[in-house]
Design brief:
The complex is a heterodimer of chains A (132) and B (135). Chain A is mostly helical and 132 residues long. Chain A is 76% helix and 0% strand. Chain A has one domain: Fumarate reductase/succinate dehydrogenase, transmembrane subunit (3 helical TM bundles of succinate and fumarate reductases), CATH 1.20.1300. Chain A starts with 13 loop residues before the first helix and ends with a helix. With 135 residues, chain B is mostly helical. Helix content of chain B is 75%, strand content 4%. Chain B is built from four helices and two strands; from the N terminus they run E-E-H-H-H-H. A two-stranded antiparallel ribbon of chain B has the order 1-2. In chain B, helix 1 (26-57) packs across helix 3. Chain B is elongated, with a radius of gyration of 21 Å. In chain B, 21% of the residues are buried. The chains are: A mainly alpha (132), B mainly alpha (135). The interface between A and B is large, with 43 and 43 residues.
Chain lengths: 132, 135
């Protein structure tokens, strides 16, 4: 099979091709943030599982008392922020893999990121209201 | 499949494996389970946020959510959430090891794969045994 018979539409700029350049600067950011939040979530998740075991079946008063401890509140806020950052990065990869229409893909990623941000804010505000 | 190499030359690339003719292997099954558990956990964050928001909304709301968690459906969802969480955690550690270039030999990734299955099962059961024992 001679290469002359091959054909694809060129999606890159001629200058980029001439210089042999790929994506620049921000290409690694998504991957790196996913790893950073993953590493942060390892200890936070273990603490979260321990906390759930402590708080299961707790009364409202017990929850408020637990949240009143600043260490608990800080770790919970860190868990919420790291979790939702990790969630929106992961779901973005999933949506981009399976949705092939450009418009649908962009719309679904934006809606998903908006929902993740709103849920994260709801969690943060609720935790602050309980703990402060 | 026709693609282009980084120096701009046209090349024929191999197609991705056709899933429907491949025998499931520990690597491929755990790989898709990592994604599925991640999506499940994303849905599970809804419960965490509901639980916190109910707590912030007052005792009546909080009792409602705590009450739902105590029902059979609530307990099943929470058990599923536990398994997904431990699986994504241990499988994620395996991925982080790969990111550092560790464990790429066939014997190693087969062993680490089964280690993820065993630790997930053990940790999920242990957490629930402790959960029922201390309440």
């Amino acid at each position: 099979m001679a290469n002359e018979t091959l054909h694809i539409d060129i999606m890159r700029s001629q200058l980029g091709r001439a210089r042999g350049l790929g994506a620049a600067k921000s290409g690694l950011h998504h991957w790196w943030m996913q790893r950073l939040t993953a590493v942060a979530l390892v200890p936070l998740t273990l603490w979260f599982i321990y906390s759930v075991l402590v708080l299961q079946g707790a009364t409202h008063a017990a929850l408020i008392a637990w949240m009143g401890n600043p260490f608990h509140l800080v770790l919970l806020l860190a868990l919420i922020v790291a979790t939702f950052h990790h969630v929106q990065l992961g779901l973005q990869s999933v949506l981009e893999d399976y949705i092939h229409t450009e418009t649908c893909r962009l719309a679904s990623v934006l809606v998903m990121k908006g929902l993740a941000a709103l849920l994260a804010l709801t969690g943060v505000v609720s935790a602050l209201k309980l703990g402060l | 499949m026709v693609g282009r190499s980084s120096d701009g030359k046209l090349v024929r690339r191999p197609l991705s494996p056709h899933l429907q003719v491949y025998k499931p292997q520990i690597t491929t099954v755990l790989s898709i389970l990592h994604r599925i558990s991640g999506v499940a956990l994303a849905a599970g964050t809804l419960f965490l946020v509901c639980w916190l928001a109910a707590g912030a909304s007052g005792p009546a709301w909080f009792e409602t959510v705590q009450g739902f968690a105590g029902t059979i459906l609530g307990q099943l969802l929470l058990f599923g959430w536990t398994v997904a969480l431990f699986y994504h955690l241990f499988s994620g550690l395996r991925h982080l090891a790969w990111d550092m270039g560790l464990g790429f030999e066939k014997a190693q990734y087969t062993a680490s794969g089964w280690a993820v299955v065993i630790t997930t099962t053990a940790a999920s059961l242990l957490a629930w045994i402790i959960g029922y024992a201390v309440r």
